[in-house]
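Title: Prediction job returns without error message
Component: structure pipeline
Severity: low
Priority: P3
Assignee: unassigned

Description:
Job completed but the reporter wants confirmation the result is attached to the right record. Sequence as submitted:
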Amino acid sequence: MAYVITEGCTKDGACVDACPVDCIHPKKDDPAFEQAEMLHINPEECIDCAACVPVCPVSIIYALDEVPEPMKQYVERNAAYFMAK
């Protein structure tokens, strides 16, 4: 099970800094960062440590099986981000 960033991402980078496996993208030094609406967690690399959850300033990161129903679209959107790469 991975974690998913949902609606309202501020791209402040706290989750990126907290992630021990570097699975949250795009990073601030990535050319795609400015154009990105939000950050994404790579479901293949996420180790389910939840380090990103408490540091999120807007509390919008959820475990895959806990994503609120109105935000389920972000599960697919997150996976699609990494499939396109």
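Comment from assignee: result matches the submitted record. The radius of gyration is 11 Å.
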